[in-house]
Amino acid sequence: MPILDEKVDLLYDAIVRRNPGEPEFHQAVHGVLDSLGAVLAKESRLARDRMIERLCEPERQIIFRVPWQNDRGEVQLNRGFQVEFSSALGPYKGGLRFHPSVNLGIVKFLGFTQVFKNALTGMPIGGAKGGADFDPKGKSDGEVMRFCQSFMTELYRHLGEHTDVPAGDIGVGERELGYLFGQYKRITNRYESGVLTGKGPAWGGSLVRKEATGFGAVFFAERMLEARGQTLDGKTCVVSGSGNVALHAIQKLHDRGARVVACSDSDGVVHDRDGLDLALLFQVKEDERGRVSDYAERRGERARFTRSGDVWSIPCDIAMPCATQNELNARDAATLIQNGCALVVEGANMPVTPEGVARLLEAGVAFGPGKAANAGGVATSALEMQQNASRDSWSFEHTEGRLAAIMGNIHRTCFETAEALGVPGNYVVGANVAGFLRVARAMLALGVI
User: Fold this and answer.
1) Could you count the other beta carbons within 10 Å of the beta carbon of residue 274?
2) How many Cβ atoms from other residues are within 10 Å of residue 428's Cβ?
3) What is the pLDDT of residue 156?
4) Between β-strands 92-98 and 164-168, what pairing exists: parallel, antiparallel or unpaired?
5) Residue among 108, 129, 199, 285 flagged as catalytic
């Protein structure tokens, strides 16, 4: 369909011109547009009503100043963002990221991806993303609290349990969410539990929410293997990162009988040939906020830490990139293929570059894209919203069962969509098309708004 492909290319060029200097956003848009040719040929109204352009333009973009004082009384200044991308399916929903790399392009790429991810869950939630170029690392609790209070003092006016419901992301965990919710409650004089998700279970949070993104990625990997007549039992795995997503992916892989031999952080890679010691890893990373080098030191001869190491060079059956965007490139993909890796599942948002994805698919490696595989976090956030709305609290087992069922449904949707489009096993196309159609059809029903 060269004419249609040319039209999609022209659309992409126009979107790039309209959003200059935002490479991550361009990459996310291109990744979706690349899958939509056949759909636009069948449903001409989507093209006629400029659905792609409308979906690529956020409904609202908010940028604001965040002044705060450090422990020495010195005034510091950061920039805050909230990009409310789409409310076609429900209130805006997406995480807040606190990291020095945060800028408008990063937030837009995350928010755009969130729209399709949230649609795939089947839950009534729209897509958004926010954050700030603030780095919690190395800050005292008091400094983090003062920053969060200043950030929420501006952001609160845009939030609400029926309007925009943020959660956590990189740099925003239970501590930060507590400070954010406390300031929201103080300003509004309302105990509106459903305005933030990822809260502590003692004050309105849901059990399993902390584990959900990592657990959900493993549930998705299980369904992918099941489609190939395999299980996780006995598989050798490597996981990049050692934050919340990575740790809980490692935990669930271990529970399912897999052997995780490596993980990483910004300092380097730890390779534990006997399999990572789960208790020690959680103690170092969660309890002590330590580094993987500390784990290696305590593990002794069984573990090797490499400061300049590459986690993807370690032979494995399954690779799970769970750190950050564009961390696994074409060269890394080639190394994984050469070492016999058969399954790559994204736990982070867009961690594999387009060239890396192409290399994996060409080699027949089963690839689970993040907008499908890591949707467990936002799905459980929606379950938290349900519990808040009904003033209820579910057990861990019940919530985990709901999460597993949702991830199974997402897998089935992506798998069946890819088969119907004549590209069986291509989860990238399946996820993009299924997510796009759910949002686009809702937008058509709502009129030109």
Assistant:
1) 10
2) 23
3) 98
4) parallel
5) 129
CATH of domain 60-190: 3.40.50.10860
Taking 50 as the pLDDT cut, the residues of the chain under it are 1-4
| Cβ within 8 Å of residue 131, ≥6 positions away | 80, 81, 95, 96, 97, 98, 99, 102, 106, 107, 169, 171, 172
| Per-residue tokens: 330 | 């074409």
Q: Tell me phi and psi for residue 321, to 5 degrees.
A: -75, 115
91-118 confidence digits (pLDDT tens): 999 999 999 999 999 999 999 999 999 9
Catalytic residue flag (residue 129):
yes
pLDDT tens by residue, 24-82:
999 999 999 989 887 877 787 887 888 999 999 999 999 999 999 999 999 999 999 99
d(CA 16, CA 18): 5
Closest by CA to 212, choosing from 49, 53, 401, is 401
Q: Taking the model in full, what pTM does it have?
A: 0.93
Strand partners, 165: 93
Q: Which CATH architecture has domain 212-373?
A: 3-Layer(aba) Sandwich (3.40)
Question: Which residues, including other chains, have CB under 8 Å from residue 316's CB and lie 6 or more apart?
Answer: 236, 237, 238, 261, 262, 336, 339, 341
**Residue 418: its pLDDT value, please?**
96
Q: Which CATH architecture has domain 2-55?
A: Orthogonal Bundle (1.10)
- DSSP assignment string, 182-227: HHHHHHHT---GGGSSS--GGGTPPTTTTTHHHHHHHHHHHHHHHH
Comma-separated ranges of CATH 3.40.50.10860 domains in the chain = 60-190
